[in-house]
Design a protein that fits this description.
5 helices; about 90 residues; mainly alpha
């Protein structure tokens, strides 16, 4: 029986649904963590972009996920931790 992650919808964040499994993270351990620590773990495993591309102002059709992914890692973390579910 597989334990599903609670509180975070990986697909809405653009993360593979098997994120925990492929990163060898115990789902029961992950589910017991507070939301901010869950996001810290997710951010540790996401690809690091030390030189993020600043989106062109001519492309105003950017969705929220693309916007968040365009942010530097420290701002990306803050955006994910403070945004409400409607934005994400």
């Amino acid at each position: 029986m597989e334990i599903e992650p609670q509180g975070i919808n990986f697909e809405e964040l653009g993360i593979r649904p098997d994120f925990l499994e492929i990163n060898n993270i115990d789902p029961s351990y992950f589910n017991a963590l507070p939301e901010d620590q869950k996001m810290d773990i997710i951010l540790q495993f996401l690809p690091k972009d030390d030189n993020p591309v600043v989106p062109s102002t001519s492309n105003l059709d950017m969705d929220n996920l693309a916007f968040i992914n365009s942010l530097p890692p420290n701002l990306r973390e803050e955006a994910l931790l403070t945004s409400d579910e409607v934005f994400l």
